[in-house]
Design a protein that fits this description.
- About 45% of the residues lie in helices and about 15% in strands.
- With about 210 residues, the protein is α/β, with parallel strands linked by helices.
- The chain has 2 domains: about 120 residues, Rossmann fold, CATH 3.40.50; about 60 residues.
- The strands form 2 sheets. A 5-stranded parallel sheet has the order 5-4-1-6-7, with helices on both faces. Strands 2-3 form a two-stranded antiparallel sheet.
- β4, α7 and β5 form a beta-alpha-beta unit.
- It is elongated.
Amino acid sequence: MPRAKIKAIAFDLGNVLVDFDHAIAARRIAPLSKMSAQEIFGLFFDSPLIGLFEEGKIAPEDFFERIKEMLGLKIDYPRFLPIWNEIFFITEKNRLTYALAAGLRNRFPLVMMSNINVLHIGYLRNKFDIFSVFNHLIFSCEVKVRKPDPRIFNEALRRLDSSAQELFYVDDRPDLVEGARNLGIEAFVFKGVEELKNDLISCGITSGKDHV
């Protein structure tokens, strides 16, 4: 059966359009806690609490109070915010990927989809110009569900008024790509901008000169 024609393109945010490293925050928190940076990283950034925050099910202040208790911190909320937020940075890979997305904007609706919390969204909006080329922004904390739950992908399809087979999606996490593929979405693991161009071409997405 021939592939459906791609009508829209969706990008993950983290480690695609902007890089991040949770270890930066863990190292800054460690001197303020009885735990090591490694212990904090494992407990803090791979816990059900983070999932709840990314799904918008707890408020930022409540999240902070639970973190204080979990890690035994003796800091206030204003001091916590920059530690929590200043984990993002732009690389040449990110710049090239953003430029590629910008070049596709005139021919395809673009969607950004991210598992992210409200504090990081606010920080990124103020710090980096990475949102302006996207027609739709789908953040887990706003739709109350995270990838790879089918509901977040279906929300993208609803906004685009497209079928799964008409959506191209790229994400750095293989498990989230697999979740999208299970719905019939043309999904690919992000390995760099050149590989992304090849994946787009494999789905028939080319420029007028037959290249992305």
